[in-house]
Design brief:
There is one protein chain. The chain is of the alpha+beta class. It has one domain. 47% of the residues lie in helices and 10% in strands. It contains 9 helices and 5 strands, in the order H-E-E-H-E-E-E-H-H-H-H-H-H-H. It has a 5-stranded mixed β-sheet. A hairpin with a 6-residue loop joins strand 4 and strand 5. It starts with 23 loop residues before the first helix and ends in a 6-residue tail after the last helix.
Length: 325
């Protein structure tokens, strides 16, 4: 009888510091390792070829120090997983097997960090994703309470992590626009974490799209984004202040500057970024080459910079010791 030997997903450095902060470089590696080990187990157990790729989702790398360490303890972690469009996964039962295997590997991957993931739930469709093959979430909770949960978004088309992230940025623009649209007389009142997430998304979109933003949009949004990042680094948690900043973003119309930065390049391929739900399924995770050429290198450079700084820092980097910034 052949013994199936599973592997524990590994990365090139410690994902968490002693005080619970995460390293974006290593966390990105770990999520990709989970995806690849899931593929390997599907092959070993079911002789199924389902090549998965994975990585971070949520833009946490824009809120870190120069070595990729988050400046505060992150309670919620997010991942983006690409699943190929293959005939066998048109069967819901087969797709459930993928989710189940992934959840098991994910739990094993985080066990060494004292995180006990349990109660996997999947199947929720995410707003503004493809109507025929929507983005599907899988969520697991930490019974040890070191973090709240990990939420993974399964995107139904193969792609590199960078391209899938940029595709999801188009969706994020439309989602963020819900509280910034000019069709409203004033922005809706957000409560609790929703207010913080809204401001984070404003920063994430600006940081991702900055190489293609117009000078006028940079002049409009740049100072506001820097203010948000500075206040977050200082520990901003006053909801009235956050709502006030969001009202400034609403009045300035910066979300339309984000749209204008990419609208034309997608339109050249017959795609309306305000109707991403209606795009052909083969366009899931596909971004015009002209945009990839401008946006992928800076995205890669962020993680290359983290790796370089960690290598330079040596043992200080490996321990996650603060640099005083």
């Amino acid at each position: 009888m052949k013994v199936i030997r599973d592997r524990l997903p590994t990365v090139s450095g410690p994902v968490f510091t002693d005080d619970g902060r995460a390293n974006s470089l290593y966390l990105n590696e770990l999520f990709d390792a989970v995806a690849k080990e899931t593929s390997a187990r599907l092959r070993r157990r079911f002789r199924a070829e389902v090549p998965l790729t994975g990585g971070l989702w949520g833009g946490s790398w824009y809120f870190t120090d120069e070595r990729g360490y988050t400046r505060a303890r992150f309670r919620r972690l997010y991942s983006l997983v690409c699943v190929p469009q293959i005939p066998s996964l048109n069967d819901a039962g087969n797709y459930n097997i993928v989710f189940w295997q992934y959840s098991k590997v994910l739990a094993e991957a985080f066990t060494p960090y004292g995180i006990a993931l349990a109660e996997p739930q999947w199947g929720e469709s995410i707003p503004y994703s493809n109507r025929l093959r929507p983005l599907i979430s899988l969520q697991m909770w930490d019974t040890n309470k070191k973090i709240d949960f990990i939420r993974c978004f399964f995107s139904y088309n193969s792609a590199s992590w960078e391209e899938a992230y940029l595709y999801e940025t188009v969706r994020l623009i439309q989602q963020t626009k819900e509280a910034l649209s000019r069709v409203m007389a004033e922005p809706p009142r957000l409560e609790g974490m929703a207010t913080r997430f809204q401001l984070q998304d404003i920063v994430i979109l600006y940081s991702t799209l900055e190489p293609v933003l117009s000078p006028s949009t940079k002049a409009l949004a740049g100072p506001l984004v820097e203010r948000i990042k500075t206040r977050f680094a200082q520990g901003m948690n006053d909801e009235d202040e956050m709502r006030s900043i969001n009202a400034e973003a609403f009045k300035s119309g910066l979300i339309y500057g984000y749209e204008d930065a990419i609208r034309e390049e997608f339109a050249k391929e017959g795609l309306d970024i305000t109707k991403i739900e209606e795009w052909p399924v083969e366009r899931i995770n596909r971004v015009p080459q002209s945009l990839k050429a401008k946006l992928v290198p800076p995205l890669k450079a962020i993680f290359q910079g983290f790796r370089k700084q960690l290598k330079t820092a040596g043992t200080a980097g490996l321990s996650g010791t603060r640099t005083g910034r």
